[in-house]
Amino acid sequence: MSKRVTVLDFQAKFNKNEKITVVTAYDYAMGLAVDAAGVDAVLVGDSLNMTMLGREDTLSASMDEMLHHTAAVAKGVKNAMVIGDMPFLSYQLGPEQALENAGAFLTEAGAQAVKLEWCPRATEITQFLVENGVPVMGHLGFTPQQLHRFGGYHQQGKDKSSAALLLREAKALEKAGAFGIVLELIPSDLAKKITASVNIPTIGIGAGPHCGGQVQVLHDLLGLMPDFHPKHAKAYLKLHEAIRDAVAEYVKEVRGGKFPPKG
Ligand code: KIV
What we know:
CATH architecture: Alpha-Beta Barrel
Helix content: 40-55%
Distance between the termini: 42 Å
Strand order of the largest sheet: 1-2-3-4-5-6-7-8
CATH topology: TIM Barrel
Bound molecules: 3-methyl-2-oxobutanoic acid
Order of helices and strands: HEHEHHEHEHEHHEHEEHH
């Protein structure tokens, strides 16, 4: 049995310029599979609200749902770090609310860290969680829980002042003790600048190749969503079609009396 990836391994990889790999997973079987693939961390993202529950956006994911899925993933993942994603309104009220909910990811669901999106009190909350023993990954740029403020799925940090603000937020998260920062949907040059300006790993999604690592949504990697193909994702499989064809074959064989075989 190999040793589980920790925040120290994240930092060591970043220091050695080795790319960090993170992927989402939402259940036991997928946890087993992505862990066997050798990823450094498995994020149980609130993207499960769309990928697993068929909802419009991430906003309505509840703590109970996030804990339920994180516990299933954690059962399957023995080597990678499991990161629970804090859902909308589970931390924004302040450090105490955040600690109670973040703590549940570790004590009830078996995660080793949490991720939280930038909010006005993000640095204060991050510092409080870290000081109380909860490793925190920050999340900057396009933060999906602020979808309505952004007016849609738009790249962030495109002009000088918003780029400067993101750089300041990254430095503030580093100072608060975050062990890494997701950079989502920002220009590649800005991601490069932020990565060079902080001493903790940046993990990009739609932020170009210069980050300390990459995170992808598993359903995008596997081609599991027939009508959703984000520009920044690469489908390594056409799993929707593979499942459809396999099940269609089963239906055909049962109807045709070919399965189960006659004994
Ligand atoms: O919820 C999620 O899957 C995420 C990743 C896209 C970073 O936050």
